[in-house]
Specification:
This protein has helices spanning 21-33, 49-52, 67-81, 125-133, 143-166, 176-186, 223-231, 247-254, 268-277, 292-299, 312-315, 331-340, 343-348, 350-357, 362-374, and strands at 9-13, 36-39, 57-59, 90-94, 109-114, 170-173, 191-192, 210-213, 237-240, 260-262, 281-282, 304-307, 322-325. The protein is an alpha/beta fold. It folds into two domains: 9-192, 3-Layer(aba) Sandwich (Rossmann fold); 210-360, Glycogen Phosphorylase B (Rossmann fold), CATH 3.40.50.2000. Strand 8 (210-213), helix 7 (223-231) and strand 9 form a beta-alpha-beta unit. The longest helix has 24 residues, at 143-166. It is globular, with a radius of gyration of 21 Å. It starts with 8 loop residues before the first strand and ends with a helix.
Length: 375
Amino acid sequence: MSDGTSKRLILAHDRFLFRGGGEHFALEFCRTFGADLLTGCIDESIWSPEELREIHTVSLMRNFRKSGLRTLGYLLGFGLRARQVSKYDIAVYSGIHAPIAVLANAASRNILYCHTPPRLIYDQAEHFSEKFRQSSPRPMFVEPAVLVARRVYLATLRKFYERAVSRMDTIVANSFNIQRRIRKYLGIESQVVYPPCDIIEYRWESQEDYYLSTARIESLKRVHLIAQAFRRLPHLKLIIASSGSDAPRVREIIDSAPNIHMTGWVDQETMQRLVGRCIATIYIPVEEDFGISPVESMAAGKPVIGVAEGGLLETVIDGETGVLLPSPASVEGLIDAVERLDARRAKSMRGACRVRARLFSREVFRQRMQKILVG
Protein backbone atom coordinates (compact mmCIF):
# COMPACT_ATOMS: atom_id res chain seq x y z
CA MET A 1 0.00 0.00 0.00
CA SER A 2 1.08 3.55 -0.68
CA ASP A 3 0.62 4.54 2.98
CA GLY A 4 3.97 3.01 3.72
CA THR A 5 2.69 -0.08 5.55
CA SER A 6 3.74 -3.60 4.62
CA LYS A 7 0.18 -4.77 3.97
CA ARG A 8 -0.48 -6.28 0.56
CA LEU A 9 -3.61 -5.03 -1.19
CA ILE A 10 -5.56 -6.38 -4.15
CA LEU A 11 -8.65 -5.10 -5.93
CA ALA A 12 -10.91 -7.57 -7.75
CA HIS A 13 -13.13 -6.17 -10.52
CA ASP A 14 -15.34 -8.19 -12.88
CA ARG A 15 -13.93 -7.21 -16.28
CA PHE A 16 -12.74 -4.40 -18.54
CA LEU A 17 -14.92 -4.64 -21.64
CA PHE A 18 -15.99 -1.00 -21.85
CA ARG A 19 -15.19 2.38 -20.32
CA GLY A 20 -17.54 2.60 -17.38
CA GLY A 21 -17.46 4.20 -13.97
CA GLY A 22 -16.62 0.90 -12.26
CA GLU A 23 -13.63 0.36 -14.51
CA HIS A 24 -12.30 3.87 -13.94
CA PHE A 25 -12.78 3.41 -10.20
CA ALA A 26 -10.81 0.17 -10.22
CA LEU A 27 -7.83 1.70 -12.04
CA GLU A 28 -7.83 4.83 -9.88
CA PHE A 29 -7.97 2.72 -6.72
CA CYS A 30 -5.02 0.58 -7.82
CA ARG A 31 -2.95 3.65 -8.72
CA THR A 32 -3.84 5.48 -5.50
CA PHE A 33 -3.08 2.64 -3.10
CA GLY A 34 -0.56 0.60 -5.06
CA ALA A 35 -2.94 -2.35 -5.26
CA ASP A 36 -2.70 -5.30 -7.61
CA LEU A 37 -5.66 -5.85 -9.94
CA LEU A 38 -7.53 -9.14 -10.35
CA THR A 39 -10.02 -9.19 -13.23
CA GLY A 40 -11.96 -11.57 -15.44
CA CYS A 41 -10.62 -10.19 -18.70
CA ILE A 42 -9.49 -7.03 -20.45
CA ASP A 43 -10.51 -5.95 -23.95
CA GLU A 44 -7.28 -4.44 -25.25
CA SER A 45 -9.09 -2.86 -28.19
CA ILE A 46 -10.69 -0.52 -25.62
CA TRP A 47 -8.06 -0.41 -22.85
CA SER A 48 -4.55 0.18 -24.15
CA PRO A 49 -1.54 -1.43 -22.43
CA GLU A 50 -0.27 2.09 -21.65
CA GLU A 51 -3.28 2.73 -19.43
CA LEU A 52 -2.50 -0.40 -17.39
CA ARG A 53 1.28 -0.29 -17.38
CA GLU A 54 1.54 1.04 -13.80
CA ILE A 55 -0.67 -1.73 -12.41
CA HIS A 56 0.21 -5.36 -11.76
CA THR A 57 -2.70 -7.22 -13.34
CA VAL A 58 -3.84 -10.82 -12.93
CA SER A 59 -6.44 -11.93 -15.49
CA LEU A 60 -8.53 -15.03 -14.82
CA MET A 61 -9.43 -16.01 -18.37
CA ARG A 62 -9.48 -15.09 -22.02
CA ASN A 63 -12.06 -12.72 -23.39
CA PHE A 64 -14.73 -15.20 -24.48
CA ARG A 65 -16.64 -14.06 -27.56
CA LYS A 66 -19.95 -15.59 -26.44
CA SER A 67 -21.45 -13.44 -23.70
CA GLY A 68 -23.15 -16.41 -22.04
CA LEU A 69 -19.88 -18.33 -21.74
CA ARG A 70 -18.17 -15.16 -20.57
CA THR A 71 -20.72 -14.59 -17.80
CA LEU A 72 -20.49 -18.19 -16.65
CA GLY A 73 -16.71 -17.89 -16.79
CA TYR A 74 -16.77 -14.92 -14.41
CA LEU A 75 -19.00 -16.77 -11.96
CA LEU A 76 -16.80 -19.85 -11.97
CA GLY A 77 -13.55 -17.94 -12.26
CA PHE A 78 -14.04 -15.75 -9.22
CA GLY A 79 -15.69 -18.56 -7.27
CA LEU A 80 -13.14 -21.27 -7.96
CA ARG A 81 -9.98 -19.86 -9.51
CA ALA A 82 -9.32 -16.61 -7.66
CA ARG A 83 -6.82 -18.24 -5.32
CA GLN A 84 -4.64 -15.15 -5.47
CA VAL A 85 -6.94 -13.30 -3.06
CA SER A 86 -5.94 -15.38 -0.04
CA LYS A 87 -2.33 -14.23 -0.44
CA TYR A 88 -3.22 -10.64 0.43
CA ASP A 89 -3.78 -8.80 3.67
CA ILE A 90 -6.66 -6.71 2.27
CA ALA A 91 -8.94 -7.44 -0.67
CA VAL A 92 -11.37 -4.90 -2.10
CA TYR A 93 -14.13 -6.17 -4.38
CA SER A 94 -15.82 -4.16 -7.15
CA GLY A 95 -18.58 -5.54 -9.38
CA ILE A 96 -21.12 -8.34 -9.12
CA HIS A 97 -19.02 -11.45 -9.82
CA ALA A 98 -15.72 -10.46 -8.20
CA PRO A 99 -17.13 -10.47 -4.62
CA ILE A 100 -17.81 -14.20 -4.97
CA ALA A 101 -14.07 -14.79 -4.60
CA VAL A 102 -14.45 -14.14 -0.87
CA LEU A 103 -16.40 -17.37 -0.38
CA ALA A 104 -13.42 -19.67 -0.94
CA ASN A 105 -10.34 -17.45 -1.10
CA ALA A 106 -10.77 -14.63 1.41
CA ALA A 107 -7.98 -12.24 2.31
CA SER A 108 -7.23 -11.37 5.92
CA ARG A 109 -9.63 -8.43 5.57
CA ASN A 110 -12.34 -8.09 2.91
CA ILE A 111 -14.05 -4.90 1.78
CA LEU A 112 -16.88 -4.58 -0.74
CA TYR A 113 -16.95 -1.30 -2.67
CA CYS A 114 -20.48 -1.51 -3.98
CA HIS A 115 -21.43 0.40 -7.13
CA THR A 116 -24.87 -1.22 -6.83
CA PRO A 117 -26.43 -4.52 -5.82
CA PRO A 118 -26.78 -6.44 -9.12
CA ARG A 119 -29.59 -4.68 -10.96
CA LEU A 120 -30.40 -7.69 -13.11
CA ILE A 121 -31.60 -9.57 -10.01
CA TYR A 122 -33.03 -6.68 -7.98
CA ASP A 123 -34.53 -3.36 -9.07
CA GLN A 124 -34.23 -3.82 -12.86
CA ALA A 125 -34.82 -7.58 -13.11
CA GLU A 126 -37.83 -7.21 -15.42
CA HIS A 127 -35.96 -4.90 -17.80
CA PHE A 128 -33.03 -7.28 -18.16
CA SER A 129 -35.32 -10.31 -18.57
CA GLU A 130 -37.19 -8.60 -21.39
CA LYS A 131 -33.94 -7.49 -23.01
CA PHE A 132 -32.67 -11.08 -22.89
CA ARG A 133 -35.85 -12.41 -24.48
CA GLN A 134 -35.53 -9.89 -27.30
CA SER A 135 -31.83 -10.55 -27.90
CA SER A 136 -30.38 -12.47 -30.85
CA PRO A 137 -32.86 -15.03 -32.19
CA ARG A 138 -32.50 -18.65 -31.10
CA PRO A 139 -34.03 -21.81 -32.58
CA MET A 140 -37.49 -22.49 -31.13
CA PHE A 141 -36.47 -25.85 -29.68
CA VAL A 142 -33.49 -24.24 -27.90
CA GLU A 143 -35.35 -21.27 -26.37
CA PRO A 144 -36.88 -23.09 -23.33
CA ALA A 145 -33.51 -24.53 -22.34
CA VAL A 146 -31.85 -21.12 -22.67
CA LEU A 147 -34.46 -19.46 -20.45
CA VAL A 148 -34.14 -22.21 -17.85
CA ALA A 149 -30.35 -21.85 -17.89
CA ARG A 150 -30.69 -18.11 -17.36
CA ARG A 151 -33.01 -18.58 -14.39
CA VAL A 152 -30.57 -21.05 -12.86
CA TYR A 153 -27.70 -18.62 -13.41
CA LEU A 154 -29.58 -15.70 -11.79
CA ALA A 155 -30.66 -17.81 -8.81
CA THR A 156 -27.07 -19.01 -8.36
CA LEU A 157 -25.69 -15.50 -8.70
CA ARG A 158 -28.13 -14.13 -6.13
CA LYS A 159 -27.33 -16.90 -3.66
CA PHE A 160 -23.57 -16.52 -4.03
CA TYR A 161 -23.65 -12.72 -4.09
CA GLU A 162 -25.72 -12.40 -0.91
CA ARG A 163 -23.56 -14.99 0.83
CA ALA A 164 -20.43 -13.13 -0.27
CA VAL A 165 -21.76 -9.79 1.00
CA SER A 166 -22.52 -11.37 4.39
CA ARG A 167 -18.85 -12.40 4.70
CA MET A 168 -17.40 -8.96 4.02
CA ASP A 169 -15.77 -7.16 6.92
CA THR A 170 -16.80 -3.75 5.59
CA ILE A 171 -19.35 -2.54 3.02
CA VAL A 172 -18.71 0.75 1.23
CA ALA A 173 -21.35 2.36 -1.01
CA ASN A 174 -20.34 4.70 -3.83
CA SER A 175 -23.16 7.15 -3.00
CA PHE A 176 -26.06 7.70 -0.64
CA ASN A 177 -28.27 6.48 -3.48
CA ILE A 178 -26.51 3.11 -3.39
CA GLN A 179 -26.46 3.10 0.41
CA ARG A 180 -30.27 3.19 0.31
CA ARG A 181 -30.34 0.47 -2.36
CA ILE A 182 -28.07 -1.79 -0.27
CA ARG A 183 -30.31 -1.29 2.75
CA LYS A 184 -33.45 -2.05 0.74
CA TYR A 185 -32.29 -5.17 -1.10
CA LEU A 186 -29.63 -6.63 1.20
CA GLY A 187 -30.82 -5.39 4.59
CA ILE A 188 -27.40 -4.17 5.72
CA GLU A 189 -25.79 -0.82 6.50
CA SER A 190 -22.82 0.66 4.67
CA GLN A 191 -20.45 3.62 4.65
CA VAL A 192 -20.41 6.12 1.78
CA VAL A 193 -17.21 7.03 -0.07
CA TYR A 194 -17.67 8.72 -3.42
CA PRO A 195 -15.46 7.38 -6.25
CA PRO A 196 -12.45 9.51 -7.25
CA CYS A 197 -12.57 11.96 -10.13
CA ASP A 198 -9.53 13.22 -11.99
CA ILE A 199 -10.21 16.95 -11.60
CA ILE A 200 -6.70 17.82 -12.82
CA GLU A 201 -6.76 16.15 -16.24
CA TYR A 202 -10.31 17.26 -16.99
CA ARG A 203 -10.07 20.99 -17.58
CA TRP A 204 -11.56 23.82 -19.61
CA GLU A 205 -9.87 24.17 -23.00
CA SER A 206 -12.34 26.28 -24.96
CA GLN A 207 -15.99 26.44 -25.88
CA GLU A 208 -16.73 25.03 -29.31
CA ASP A 209 -20.15 24.58 -30.90
CA TYR A 210 -21.28 21.13 -29.74
CA TYR A 211 -22.98 19.33 -26.87
CA LEU A 212 -21.53 16.00 -25.75
CA SER A 213 -22.92 12.62 -24.65
CA THR A 214 -20.43 10.20 -23.10
CA ALA A 215 -22.78 7.58 -21.62
CA ARG A 216 -22.46 3.99 -22.76
CA ILE A 217 -25.08 3.38 -25.46
CA GLU A 218 -27.46 1.06 -23.61
CA SER A 219 -31.22 1.44 -23.38
CA LEU A 220 -31.12 2.36 -19.68
CA LYS A 221 -28.69 5.20 -20.44
CA ARG A 222 -31.35 6.76 -22.71
CA VAL A 223 -28.88 7.95 -25.32
CA HIS A 224 -31.61 7.31 -27.89
CA LEU A 225 -33.64 10.13 -26.31
CA ILE A 226 -30.68 12.48 -26.71
CA ALA A 227 -30.40 11.52 -30.38
CA GLN A 228 -34.14 12.05 -30.91
CA ALA A 229 -33.98 15.48 -29.28
CA PHE A 230 -31.13 16.69 -31.49
CA ARG A 231 -32.90 15.44 -34.59
CA ARG A 232 -35.41 18.13 -33.69
CA LEU A 233 -32.64 20.67 -33.04
CA PRO A 234 -30.89 20.68 -36.44
CA HIS A 235 -29.22 24.02 -35.71
CA LEU A 236 -27.31 22.53 -32.75
CA LYS A 237 -24.50 19.96 -32.86
CA LEU A 238 -24.21 16.77 -30.81
CA ILE A 239 -21.26 14.38 -30.45
CA ILE A 240 -21.90 10.91 -28.98
CA ALA A 241 -18.52 9.62 -27.78
CA SER A 242 -19.29 6.03 -26.83
CA SER A 243 -20.75 2.75 -28.02
CA GLY A 244 -22.78 -0.16 -26.66
CA SER A 245 -25.46 -2.70 -27.45
CA ASP A 246 -28.04 0.00 -28.28
CA ALA A 247 -25.73 1.64 -30.85
CA PRO A 248 -27.57 0.26 -33.92
CA ARG A 249 -30.80 1.83 -32.69
CA VAL A 250 -29.08 5.19 -32.17
CA ARG A 251 -27.40 5.01 -35.59
CA GLU A 252 -30.81 4.52 -37.17
CA ILE A 253 -32.16 7.58 -35.34
CA ILE A 254 -29.28 9.83 -36.41
CA ASP A 255 -29.20 8.61 -40.00
CA SER A 256 -29.16 11.63 -42.34
CA ALA A 257 -28.79 14.01 -39.39
CA PRO A 258 -25.65 16.05 -40.23
CA ASN A 259 -25.70 17.78 -36.84
CA ILE A 260 -25.12 14.51 -34.93
CA HIS A 261 -21.83 12.57 -34.96
CA MET A 262 -21.16 9.27 -33.19
CA THR A 263 -17.47 8.48 -32.66
CA GLY A 264 -17.59 5.09 -30.96
CA TRP A 265 -15.24 4.49 -28.03
CA VAL A 266 -12.37 6.97 -27.79
CA ASP A 267 -9.19 6.94 -25.73
CA GLN A 268 -8.86 8.91 -22.51
CA GLU A 269 -6.92 11.79 -24.04
CA THR A 270 -9.54 12.27 -26.75
CA MET A 271 -12.35 12.11 -24.20
CA GLN A 272 -10.72 14.76 -22.05
CA ARG A 273 -10.35 16.99 -25.09
CA LEU A 274 -13.99 16.50 -26.14
CA VAL A 275 -15.23 17.33 -22.64
CA GLY A 276 -12.91 20.32 -22.33
CA ARG A 277 -14.18 21.93 -25.54
CA CYS A 278 -17.94 21.26 -25.49
CA ILE A 279 -20.75 23.63 -24.49
CA ALA A 280 -22.18 21.17 -21.96
CA THR A 281 -22.50 17.42 -21.46
CA ILE A 282 -25.76 15.47 -21.46
CA TYR A 283 -26.27 12.50 -19.14
CA ILE A 284 -29.80 11.15 -18.51
CA PRO A 285 -29.65 7.47 -17.45
CA VAL A 286 -32.39 5.67 -15.54
CA GLU A 287 -31.67 5.88 -11.78
CA GLU A 288 -27.89 6.08 -12.27
CA ASP A 289 -25.90 4.56 -9.40
CA PHE A 290 -23.51 7.51 -9.04
CA GLY A 291 -22.26 8.61 -12.44
CA ILE A 292 -18.65 9.77 -12.74
CA SER A 293 -19.17 11.43 -16.13
CA PRO A 294 -21.08 14.44 -14.73
CA VAL A 295 -18.30 15.04 -12.20
CA GLU A 296 -15.64 14.90 -14.93
CA SER A 297 -17.70 17.39 -16.92
CA MET A 298 -17.91 19.79 -13.99
CA ALA A 299 -14.18 19.36 -13.35
CA ALA A 300 -13.66 20.80 -16.85
CA GLY A 301 -15.97 23.69 -16.03
CA LYS A 302 -18.71 22.24 -18.22
CA PRO A 303 -22.28 22.12 -16.86
CA VAL A 304 -24.40 18.99 -17.10
CA ILE A 305 -27.84 18.46 -18.55
CA GLY A 306 -29.04 15.57 -16.42
CA VAL A 307 -32.18 14.07 -14.93
CA ALA A 308 -33.45 14.37 -11.37
CA GLU A 309 -32.86 10.70 -10.56
CA GLY A 310 -30.30 8.57 -8.74
CA GLY A 311 -26.74 9.76 -8.25
CA LEU A 312 -27.18 12.96 -10.27
CA LEU A 313 -29.18 14.38 -7.36
CA GLU A 314 -25.94 14.15 -5.33
CA THR A 315 -23.58 15.65 -7.90
CA VAL A 316 -25.31 18.24 -10.10
CA ILE A 317 -26.87 21.36 -8.57
CA ASP A 318 -29.86 22.34 -10.69
CA GLY A 319 -29.48 25.88 -11.99
CA GLU A 320 -25.89 26.24 -10.72
CA THR A 321 -23.80 23.47 -12.28
CA GLY A 322 -26.32 22.30 -14.85
CA VAL A 323 -29.97 21.61 -15.53
CA LEU A 324 -31.86 18.59 -14.18
CA LEU A 325 -34.85 17.42 -16.19
CA PRO A 326 -37.96 16.27 -14.32
CA SER A 327 -38.17 12.51 -13.98
CA PRO A 328 -38.75 10.58 -16.16
CA ALA A 329 -36.61 12.14 -18.86
CA SER A 330 -38.39 12.97 -22.11
CA VAL A 331 -37.45 14.32 -25.53
CA GLU A 332 -39.52 17.44 -24.95
CA GLY A 333 -37.91 18.08 -21.57
CA LEU A 334 -34.47 17.58 -23.04
CA ILE A 335 -35.11 19.98 -25.91
CA ASP A 336 -36.24 22.61 -23.41
CA ALA A 337 -33.14 22.06 -21.23
CA VAL A 338 -30.74 22.32 -24.18
CA GLU A 339 -32.36 25.54 -25.37
CA ARG A 340 -32.17 27.00 -21.85
CA LEU A 341 -28.52 25.97 -21.36
CA ASP A 342 -27.07 27.82 -24.33
CA ALA A 343 -23.38 28.67 -24.75
CA ARG A 344 -23.60 31.93 -22.82
CA ARG A 345 -25.34 30.42 -19.79
CA ALA A 346 -23.10 27.36 -19.86
CA LYS A 347 -20.00 29.54 -19.72
CA SER A 348 -21.40 31.45 -16.73
CA MET A 349 -21.48 28.17 -14.74
CA ARG A 350 -17.81 27.43 -15.29
CA GLY A 351 -16.58 28.52 -11.85
CA ALA A 352 -19.39 26.83 -9.91
CA CYS A 353 -18.76 23.58 -11.78
CA ARG A 354 -15.09 23.55 -10.86
CA VAL A 355 -15.85 24.19 -7.19
CA ARG A 356 -18.47 21.45 -7.11
CA ALA A 357 -16.14 18.87 -8.70
CA ARG A 358 -13.58 19.29 -5.91
CA LEU A 359 -15.93 17.47 -3.52
CA PHE A 360 -15.28 14.31 -5.57
CA SER A 361 -11.53 14.64 -6.11
CA ARG A 362 -8.90 11.94 -5.87
CA GLU A 363 -7.57 13.51 -2.69
CA VAL A 364 -10.96 13.46 -0.93
CA PHE A 365 -11.39 9.83 -2.00
CA ARG A 366 -7.90 8.90 -0.82
CA GLN A 367 -8.42 10.41 2.62
CA ARG A 368 -11.80 8.76 3.19
CA MET A 369 -10.86 5.37 1.79
CA GLN A 370 -7.57 5.35 3.67
CA LYS A 371 -9.46 5.51 6.97
CA ILE A 372 -11.43 2.43 5.97
CA LEU A 373 -8.39 0.48 4.79
CA VAL A 374 -6.48 1.03 8.03
CA GLY A 375 -9.54 0.83 10.27
